[in-house]
Amino acid sequence: LWPGYRVSTAAYVISLFQTQILRELRLKEYGLRILPRNPSSFTPLPDGRSLTLGPDASLVEREIGKFSQRDALAYPRYNALLERIAKVLEPALAEAAPDPLPLPESWRKIGMAKRLRDGKKLWGLYGALKELGPDLPEAVELLTAAARPILERWFESEALRATLATDAIIGAFLSPSSPGSAYVLLHHVMGEAGGARGVWGYVQGGMGGLADALEKACLDLDVEIRRESPVHAIHTDRHGVCGVGLEDGTQLEAPVVASSVDAHLTFERMLSPDTLPDEFRAAVARIDYASASAKINLALAEPPNFTCLPSVGVAPHHHGTMHIGPTLDYIDQAYDDAKYGRPSARPVLEMTMATSVDHTIAPEGKHLLSIFVQYAPYRLAEGSWDDVKESFADRCIDAIAEYAPNVPGAIEHRQVLSPVDLERVYGITGGNIMQGAMGPHQLYCFRPVAGWADHRTPVPGLFLCGAASHPGGGVMGACGRNAAREILR
Known about the structure:
The protein is 35% helix and 14% strand. By secondary structure, the protein is an alpha+beta fold. It has a seven-stranded mixed β-sheet, with helices on both faces. It has a three-stranded antiparallel β-sheet with strand order 5-6-7, with no helix packed on it.
C-alpha cells in the first residue's frame, strides 16, 4: 500500500482459525507465526481513567477493581461460562450443518444417507447441550438475545460493559441492545489460534502471512494457484457445473467448483438465472447483508500518546485492541445514527497497532494503526460514500484525538475504506464482512438458506466454501474445511 509497509488492509487479528487446520496443513512449518497480545485490550475513558484487560489474571483483577470489586470477582466467572458454552458448541462448527427442516421434495430431495447423517449430528448437538446442565438457559440466551441485558446483569461498571460489548457488534448492523447481538459476542470467543480460547493475536508479517503459509502448503500438494484471475461466470450443462470463465476470457473446465464469494455473487451474478429453482433464488434474495462498518488504515510517525496513560514510544497498552466507546449508551447512540442512514456522529472505534509487537511490517520507528469503525451504514440517507468518506474519517480521527491528541499530527499516510469500498475491493455484498448477517435466522441450518446448509447447492458439483456458508464469518477456515469434506464425500 505504501513503500516499506505491509498493511493488513481488511482483517487484522486472528483467533477463530481452527487449530486442526493449522496441524493438518502444517502451517507453522510453512512460516505462519502468531504473535500474542499482552495486554489484549485497552479502553481510555473521558474522565482520565482507563481499563486494561489481558491474560494476566492479577492485572485484570486490579484493573477491574478500580471500578468495581464486584465486577473483579464476576469477570472470571463470566469468562468461564463463555468458555464452557464455546467448548460445547465448537464441534458443531467443525462439520457441515444438518438440514433438519421438513421441506418439500420440490425444494430439495434428500436421500436416506443424508437424513441419517443429519440425525446423528442433531443427536450429537443435543447431547452436547445436555452437558451444559444448569448453564443451558444462559447458553440459549447468548445464542438468541441482546448482549446489553446480559452484560448489565453480570457487571455494574460501564467501562467493562462497553469494552466487552464491542465484541457483540463487530461487523454487525446491531447495537448491544439488539436481539442476536449476544451470539456475535459468543462467536468471538470461539477458536484457539491465538494460543488459548478467545485469545487473539497478530500474524507476523501482516495477515498476508497466513495467505503465504496457505499458498506454500497448497503448492507442496501440487495445487495450481492462479493469481489475479477473477472469475466472471460459473458454467453449467445438463449434468451440473462444468467449469468457470475468467474475466480475461479464459475458460477452465471442472466437474467441481467451490465458491468462496457470497451467495449473492455466486447465484445472482455468476450463474445464469434459469439455472436455479425459483424458490431457491427467492431465498437467496432474502439474505440479509445489512452492514455498517468502515476501515481506516494509518501510517504513523509515532504511537498514540493517551492522556490517561502517557508514554514515550511503544507501551504495553498499545499491544492489544484500543477501544473508543466508553459506555453502552454511547454505543447505542452511535447505532441510532446509522439506523436512520447517518454515519455515527460519535463513532465506535476498535484500533490495533500490530507494529507494537511485529517489527517486520513498517520502517523502523514507524507504526501502523488499523481502525475498525462502527457505524457506517452502507445505505446513506443523504449523499454518497465517495463524497463523505474522507470527512467521516476526519471525524473518527478527531474522536481518537480526544484521548490521544498527538495522532492527527503523526499521520503520514492514510487509507479510508467505506462500506461501498469494501464491496468494490473485496467483493462482499453490502460491505458485510461476514458475507451475510450473523443473526439466528442466518446461522447453522439456515446458512446460507434453509435446506442447503451442507455447502451443496441446487447445481450438482457447485459448492459454497466461504463465510456465506456454515459456520459464518471470521478468519477461521472452518467453512472451507467443512466444504472440502463434503466435496470428498
